[in-house]
Amino acid sequence: MVDTKHKHPDAWRLPARELEIGIGGAIRLHLQKATLITELIKDITAPEIPALQDKLEALAGRIDAKGSADTWAHLLRRAKLEPGAIRILISRQALSEALGTPKESIDPQARTITTSFQLKRRGVEAKIILGAATVQLDPILAQNLLTARRWYAAIKAGSSFGDLAKQEGTSVNRIRQIIGLAFLAPDLMEAIAAGRQPLGLTSEWIKRRSLPLTWQDQRALIADL
Q1: Could you tell me if 107 and 7 lie in one domain?
Q2: Which of 99, 104, 111, 96 is nearest to 55 (CA)?
Q3: CA distances from 124 to 1, 14, 33, 57, 127 (A)
Q4: Which one of 12, 113, 188, 214 has the lowest number of neighbouring Cβ atoms within 10 Å?
Q5: Do 8 and 115 belong together in one domain?
Q6: Cβ–Cβ under 8 Å, residues 151 and 179
Q7: Bridge partners (DSSP) listed for residue 118
Q8: 150 and 60 share a domain?
Q9: pLDDT string in tens for the chain (225-residue length)
Q10: 11 and 63, same domain (yes or no)
Q11: What is residue 57's three-state secondary structure?
């Protein structure tokens, strides 16, 4: 559970779902660290490494970093928010059971994860970033980008907005809101596909605005998000 003894100044406003995803991802990434098994087990011998490494990888593989906390909650001993960071302690008991090793053989330092913590806000939206990596694939935005390109191809091929809306089971207004994504600068499209877009660049943000037609103006507008 998250330690609230020393509350983070924004603790009461932390989005729980984002925090779950961040902690789950941090635990999974830590367990996938190539050298972790030799750091985790004291006095490990070379013949023991392959089997224990397989168990560690299997443990990491069962964590759904984008899903329910149920897949990793048993591994979490404690998570403590600190200024600009979060400290996560993996349960020694859970590791002992998963690896089939005595609890005493597990190094406490190796089961501790300390990673940077940022809370980004834009209006009522908030997103948590744990760690240096900021890859945050937005599946809705990525899907809308693909849809916009497909709709634009249909319009170029001669379909009217009305015909396309009927064919797609949507509204003309919806098509007009989304199709602008088809005209994004190539580097912005690539950033969305790779999950490197600015946090404020969401489908909801795009729906409320008309994107500039020139790539330079698009980059300038989106750079401020």
Answers
A1: yes
A2: 99
A3: 25, 12, 35, 38, 10
A4: 12
A5: yes
A6: yes
A7: 129
A8: no
A9: 555 444 444 443 556 777 787 788 888 888 988 789 989 998 888 889 989 989 998 999 888 866 678 889 999 999 887 777 788 999 999 999 999 999 999 998 999 988 876 666 555 555 656 565 444 678 888 889 889 989 999 999 999 999 999 999 999 999 998 998 989 988 888 888 877 787 778 888 888 888 888 999 998 888 877
A10: yes
A11: helix
The pTM assigned to this predicted structure is 0.51
Number of C-beta neighbours around residue 15 at 10 A: 15
For 150, the token pair is 């497909």
Residues 6+ apart with CB under 8 A from 217: none
CA–CA distance, 107 with 139 (Å, rounded to integer): 38
Q: What is the pLDDT of residues 130-152, one digit of tens each?
A: 565 444 678 888 889 889 989 99
139-146 contacts at long range (C-beta below 8 A, 24 or more positions apart):
140/202, 140/203, 141/192, 141/197, 141/201, 141/202, 141/203, 141/206, 142/192, 142/193, 142/195, 144/178, 144/181, 144/203, 144/206, 145/181, 145/182, 145/184, 145/189, 145/192, 145/193
Domain extent, residue 164, equals 139-223
d(CA 59, CA 141): 31
Helix 92-99 crosses helix 49-61 at what angle (to 10 degrees)?
120
Residue at token pair 């003309």: 172
Query: Which amino acid would we find at residue 120?
Result: K
The number of domains in the chain is 2
